[in-house]
TrEMBL record:
Keywords: Transferase. GO terms for molecular function: formyl-CoA transferase activity. The keyword Transferase applies. This is Formyl-CoA transferase. Its EC number is 2.8.3.16. It comes from Oxalobacter vibrioformis. InterPro entries: CoA-transferase_III_domain, CoA-Trfase_fam_III, CoA-Trfase_III_dom3_sf, CoA-Trfase_III_dom_1_sf. The keyword ATP-binding does not apply.
């Protein structure tokens, strides 16, 4: 993908992002911006984003670039710059002048230690949107702490409310601390760009902290926290009695909404042979009739009785579902307007006709190691996100192109900077 054709007609066309992010939380955010049309320049230390190597797989005895990297860095160009060299700083400063946004998710204080606190960046480019992800933000008692996904899930409340009430706190398979924070950051960046457009080109600092984002994604659990403190006893959903509890317990598969819900086994009873269904109040009489009970059965028809007797209720539903596969139950219940879906394994998700129709499992072509599949763009715009997904870039693949076309340096300058070690680490002594 040597000559990367930038789209000119997409929502973020014309926005240039200096993307200093690494691992998961940042790259997932900048990839969304790239898919919306931004020119995303992945700015890496000469050693590269660590995920290029992490969890890499081997094909025919050859180590491949990891899917971890490939799936989070499509539609980006890559430049390697040694920020600890004078020549590297010259390239960096010129890029700062030419970009609209800088993004990072380094550990606390890294950019300042490299000589670039926010004030210095603003001095170089007053219109710059300076966006960062940290575990805990730039102020407060934890601001010096590094963070990884499960730490954010632990400290944002998520782990304590996930899993079996009789088992340990559990991390979620959805990476809400990393990818979830990335989505929050992307929102902040887009808002700051909008503000800049309407306010004389003034940039600002945008910060998304992983603990904050996890809390936001657990918002309705904090709703339940307030309800418990207020003495609400009718949280019948949460298996054990909740009256008197001062914190929200783990709820296993309870829906957590206004209608009770659960994961119910189906035949042939493999690890993912379940449906998830919600006993939505208006369709309960239909459901009761379908499973062989009276539509006005007083144990289950009134919401309060259903909440109270839900264990018995789910037993009746299971007696029905055990005769069918999850696909059969899903088809029948949806016919009856009962909200219900099969639990799909990753294997089933990526072959699901609806997922394929939505291009949520999509092939990226043109990587030197071969085509690969990735999760698609989850936000669809009527004027379109980028038409084609370009593969993740090789390390430093666009050093020369970016130095000349974006920074505006000449061929002679490029050679001088290269010679002076802008793009590489100094040789080991
Ligand atoms: C993820 C981290 C814990 C990783 O920690 P580290 O590996 O120690 O990296 P740091 O970011 O702290 O430091 C990077 C170091 O690289 C140096 N550095 C960086 N870029 C350059 C360039 N271009 N040139 C020279 N040196 C460089 C920089 O000066 C730092 O050195 P020194 O100045 O000498 O220190 C941390 O980055 C972090 O807390 N980030 C914020 C929270 C976050 O995004 N977490 C999500 C992780 S993803 C995840 O959880 C997951 O994938 O799973």
């Amino acid at each position: 993908m040597g000559n990367y054709p930038l789209p000119t007609d997409k929502a973020l066309s014309g926005v240039r992002v200096l993307d200093m992010t690494h691992v998961q939380a940042g790259p997932t955010s900048s990839q969304l911006l790239a898919w919306l049309g931004a020119d995303v320049i992945k700015f890496e230390a000469p050693t590269g984003d660590i995920t290029r190597q992490q969890l890499a797989h081997v094909v025919d005895g050859k180590r491949q670039e990891s899917f971890y990297f490939k799936m989070l860095n499509a539609n980006k160009r890559s430049i390697t710059v040694n920020m600890k060299s004078k020549a590297g700083q010259e390239v960096f400063e010129q890029l700062i002048r030419k970009c609209d946004v800088i993004m990072d998710n380094f550990g606390p204080g890294v950019l300042t230690r490299l000589g670039y606190p926010d004030e210095k960046l603003q001095e170089l480019n007053p219109g710059l949107v300076i966006a960062s992800i940290k575990g805990f933000g730039s102020s407060g008692p934890y601001s010096d702490y590094k963070a990884y996904e499960p730490i954010a899930q632990a400290m944002g409340g998520s782990m304590s409310v996930t899993g079996d009430p009789n088992g340990p706190p559990t991390i979620s398979g959805a990476f809400i601390g990393d990818s979830g924070t990335g989505v929050h950051l992307a929102l902040g960046i887009v808002a700051a760009i909008y503000h800049r457009t309407h306010n004389g080109g003034k940039g600002q600092i945008v910060e998304a902290a992983m603990q904050d984002s996890v809390m936001n994604l657990c918002r309705v659990k904090f709703r339940d926290h307030l309800r418990l403190l207020g003495g609400t006893a009718e949280l019948a959903e949460y298996g054990p009695p909740t009256l008197g509890l001062t914190y929200v317990p783990r709820a296993l598969n309870d829906s957590g909404g206004g209608h009770i819900g659960n994961a119910i086994p189906c035949k042939p009873f493999g690890p993912n042979d379940y449906i998830y269904m919600v006993a939505q109040a208006p369709v309960v009489p239909v459901l009761l009739k379908e499973i062989g009970l009276e539509p006005d059965d007083e144990r289950f028809a009134p919401a309060a009785a259903r909440n109270k007797n839900q264990h018995e209720f789910w037993k009746y539903v299971s007696e029905y579902t055990k005769n069918y596969t999850k696909q059969e139950v899903t088809a029948r219940f949806n016919e009856l307007d009962i909200p219900c879906g099969p639990v799909l394994s990753t294997e089933e998700v990526v072959a699901d006709p609806h997922v394929l129709h939505r291009e949520m499992w999509t092939k990226i072509e043109g990587h030197p190691e071969g085509d690969y599949y990735t999760v698609g763009m989850p936000v669809k715009l009527s004027l379109g996100e980028v038409d084609k997904k370009y593969p993740s870039p090789g390390l430093g693949e666009h050093n020369e192109q970016i130095t000349k076309d974006v920074c505006g340096f000449s061929e002679a300058d490029f050679n001088r900077l290269k010679e002076a070690g802008a793009y590489t680490l100094p040789p080991k002594k």
